[in-house]
Amino acid sequence: MPLDPMPDWVLTRRREIGARIRTARLRAGLTQIQLAERIGREHRTIHRWEYARHIPNLQDLLLVADALGVPLADLVR
């Protein structure tokens, strides 16, 4: 059962993870569209993750980390 409303710390962590994805993507020199193509997702999905509208699941985080050449821990610390 989801928590309603979501605790503040969850929203904070969601924003932090999104910012880390964005930073790693920019360091890799990729656009949202290019990253989306590499992991088989729509670019809107990448946008939603980066701006904390949605949170990627573990499988998606693994795909992103691999596509960007960063350890998974760097995205979720």
Structural class determined from secondary elements: mainly alpha
Compute the number of strand runs.
Answer: 0
Mean pLDDT: 94
Poorly predicted runs are: none
Number of helices: 5
Give helix and strand order, one letter per element, not per position.
HHHHH
Protein name: Helix-turn-helix domain-containing protein
InterPro entries: Cro/C1-type_HTH (IPR001387), Lambda_DNA-bd_dom_sf (IPR010982)
Domain HTH cro/C1-type: 21-75
Pfam family, one: HTH_31
List descriptors.
single chain; about 80 residues; mainly alpha; 434 Repressor (Amino-terminal Domain); 5 helices; Helix-turn-helix domain-containing protein; Lambda_DNA-bd_dom_sf; Cro/C1-type_HTH
Descriptive notes:
- This protein has a single domain, classed as 434 Repressor (Amino-terminal Domain) (Orthogonal Bundle).
- The N and C termini lie far apart (25 Å).
- By secondary structure, it is an all-alpha fold.
- It contains 5 helices and no strands.
- The chain is 68% helix and 0% strand.
- Residues 21-75 form the HTH cro/C1-type domain.
- This is Helix-turn-helix domain-containing protein.
